[in-house]
Amino acid sequence: MESAVTESADSKLAGKRVGRELGGVISPGTVIASVLPVYVLMLAGAVSRRVGLIRREHDEGVMRVIYSMMFPCFILDKILGSEVLRSGPVVIGTLALGFGLIVVSIFIGLGIGRLFGLERGTGMRTFALSAGCQNFGFTATPVVEILWGAAALPLLFIHNIGVEICIWSVGVMMMSGQRKVIWRRLLNGPVVAVTIGLVLVALGLDHEVTGAGRKAMSMIGLGTFPLAIFITGCMIMDLVGKERPNWRVMSGAALVRLVLCPALILCVAKFFPMPNELRQVMVVQAAMPAGLSTIILARLYDGRPAVAVQVVIVTTLLSLLTLPWIITWGSAWIGLKPVLP
């Protein structure tokens, strides 16, 4: 009798645990609390720029160190020993997904741009690229690690190479109106780090990278994202108030980047066959605001930087509200359970 009562009680407790898991233990408030440090760092950077603590001339040197040394070390440290990257089809599929989703997102941006009255020569192409390309790197990486742990990071880096290939090929051709692709732009620290890591994993030599060298590499990489996000906040402060607001651009950007593209990415994550780690990456990518790199492209290739600036600012500000809901609902719909602190 006692054992039956105990068993019944245990069953009820187990049922409650399962119910909590299936019902989505994660809540928007929990996600906000988990990723809030990312936004606090960004705000700290903005305030530091505003009061003159960090000047513009500091940015280039800091970003060069981050992009050329710290980020590659972080990437390589996380790729080495990753079992999921030992599958060639997974690596190729992840690259293709990163490339393909940005292409589709750009076309969504073109359609919404036309719907909102933008035309070629008045910022339509810049709008499409800016709204279609999320902040896939420096902001997404710490959020992925916070929510899912380090196991999802290697596939994030592979996905991001696909995004970079798309930006520097399709993106540049669309922005400039030319058919020439400047492939040397892809010869950067993160791409080199991913390539080296994949080669070592494929050859089974990644487990040989140990000792003081591996520890030093890990230590160099640890400071990447606090510093990168802080500087991103400084750069965003530089952009605030520089351009007269265009409500068509800003409302269209919010629709594309924070509604339509998340819906596309989450549908792909749910219905396409892929490893769970890649689904985790997709949920975070769906919630990201527009990326700063599109402002650089607009300046380099005769686009409309003012349009890109507005897209970045409005989606970054609104993402503080939309990010927890996209991640919460997306995770529950797909059937993922974040590993929260």
Give the termini separation.
40 Å
Question: Under CATH, the topology is which?
Answer: Na+/H+ antiporter like fold
Number of domains: 1
Helix-strand sequence? HHHHHHHHHHHHHH
Which class best fits the helix and strand makeup? mainly alpha
Rg for CA atoms: 21 Å
Largest sheet: none
Residues in β-strands, percent = under 5%
| Average pLDDT figure | 85
**Unreliable residue runs:** 1-25
Query: At CATH's second level, what is the architecture?
Result: Up-down Bundle
- SS field, number of helical segments: 14
- The CATH top-level class label: Mainly Alpha
Q: What does the overall shape look like?
A: globular
Explain what the structure shows.
This protein starts with a helix and ends in a 7-residue tail after the last helix. The model is unreliable at 1-25 (pLDDT under 50). Helices cover 75% and strands 0% of the residues. The protein has a single domain (28-334), classed as Na+/H+ antiporter like fold, CATH 1.20.1530. The longest helix is centred in the last third of the chain and has 30 residues, at 305-334. It is an all-alpha fold.
Please describe the structure with a list of short key phrases separated by commas or semicolons.
disordered N terminus; 0% strand; globular; mainly alpha
In short:
The protein is an all-alpha fold and 341 residues long.
Topology (elements, then pairings):
Layout: H1 2-22, H2 28-50, H3 56-79, H4 88-115, H5 124-132, H6 140-148, H7 153-176, H8 189-203, H9 211-222, H10 224-239, H11 247-271, H12 276-287, H13 293-300, H14 305-334
Helix pairs in contact: 2-6, 2-10, 2-14, 3-8, 3-9, 3-10, 4-5, 4-7, 4-11, 5-11, 5-14, 6-12, 11-12, 11-14, 12-14, 13-14
